[in-house]
Specification:
The protein has 573 residues and is mainly β. Strands 1-32-33-34-35 form a 5-stranded mixed sheet, with no helix packed on it. The chain has a 4-stranded antiparallel sheet with strand order 2-38-37-36, with no helix packed on it.
Length: 573
Amino acid sequence: MKKLSASASRLATIGIAVAAAVALNPGLVEAAADYPAVTYQRLTDAQQDPGWLTYYRPYNGRSHSPLKQIDPSNAKDLKQVWAYKFPADLKQGFEATPIVNGNYLFVTTPKDNVYAFDAKTGKQLWKYEPKLGAASFKTACCDVVNRGVALYGKNVYIAMLNGEIAALDAQTGNLVWKKQMFEPGLGYAFSLAPLAIDGAIVVGTSGGEYGIRGYIAALNPEDGSQVWKRYTIPAAGEKGAETWPDGMQSHGGGAAWLTGTYDAASRTLYWGVGNPGPWLAALRPGDNLYSDSLLALDAKSGNLKWHYQYTNNDTWDYDGVNAAVLADIKYKGKDYDAIIHADRNGFFHAIDRTTGKLIYATPFVKALSVTGYTEDGKPIQDASKFPKAGTTIETCPSFLGGKNWWSISYDQERNIAVVPALHACMSLTGKSVSYMEGLPYLGEGFEIKPEPGSEGYGELTAIDVNTGKKLWSHWSKKPWNGGVATTASGLAFSGSLDGHLYAFDTATGKVLWESPQLASGIISQPSVYEVDGKEYVAVLAGYGGANPIWGGPMADIAKDVPRGGTLYVFALN
């Protein structure tokens, strides 16, 4: 008899157990079939799945669907098929990407509520309301938002503002386990969608404006026990600590607050790290590793393979958290396995994802602080744009970046990345500051201003990833804060603060469809999925986030955008 492999043996054992359980309770057959388990293999193959299984759809961060039913010829016929209005007391930003598995659609809301719907009809299946305490909101920056869930096995995972990671039963919403990672109100928070990989749920902390020491952690999906933890700021004596003044590493910032990407073939996580603390760079001379950097991590151990720093000794809050998207590019006749990344410092980067070496970097907005990069990939920065205590500088882009957290989408067949860009500048005034736990740790005052000569604050733009050059632009007077989802048929979906979801021709930028007026502006990413052979486009509308808090004139121009959240789903007739 042929001996079974260890994995096959486990599958056989599971099959016997399931058969025995079904024999005792035939009703389990219907329940088991209703919600398909999300295995690591399914997540690895998510690009071929009809659903939208992870934050960026596949691990590679491309936010690109293989579906073709809705195409440039019929996009004009899209109609709303259902909508769900969330409770009126939720008036903060709705930033989650709808996650779809089988006929289940999951979204999160501000204050970390989780909802499950029938993906075809909109019937609410369950909701989870954690009822966070007041301390959970004390050091939440910026707005009390949540960007979504991860799926693994038969569970739904959420990371919350109060430091808890919760596993919920995907069919019922019942709590399976809960793990407290830190105490709320002291500077740390979670606002990202977790990432489920092989035997781990990976999360990263928010809190860069409160002098935390950022970290990325992997938890066991079965019980929440910690698998590994990687601090983003090295401790004294560790490699990279010499890039900080002694003693500042323990509250150096480096939040890792946006979902990373993953290469299943090499078992490598690519995770962005945010700004150093305090904002005023004069208080912390040095490169300040690994702030404003991309980290390539061994997914099993969290060990660092390599890093790339987009902005060193950052004094402009430029971060490095925006998605690191895996792309296959040809630059100057040479093929690369690359990372593409639209950074808050205003540059679109292509990085060799094996070595961490810069391939190219081109500006996509007006960039005056970082002006270019050396041949070996070091940022070139204008020394006159560093404020000191009591001095003020003017620069572009603003601290909200040339692009903030909003997802880009990459269409490999067309070699196009579609990027939501922000055109704003700022003044920064240096101020002295000392670290105190749980209090803002900035050392700078700021004022946002329009970018001189721009057509508006918002631009949705397409970039040729083989050259870094722009192909087309769609301008908006208000900021364009909506993420992007593209499809194999050649469509790019993205929403505006004006309260419309748009379908663009990915190749040309032509607007092929816009939704009727929605209840609020869009700052989230759409998802595109298929159930029973029918293709749907889902998006959350609900203005909020950083812009109305810190946006200055950008907040003023959007002050009449209604608040409150609604989930919309569209399809062809």
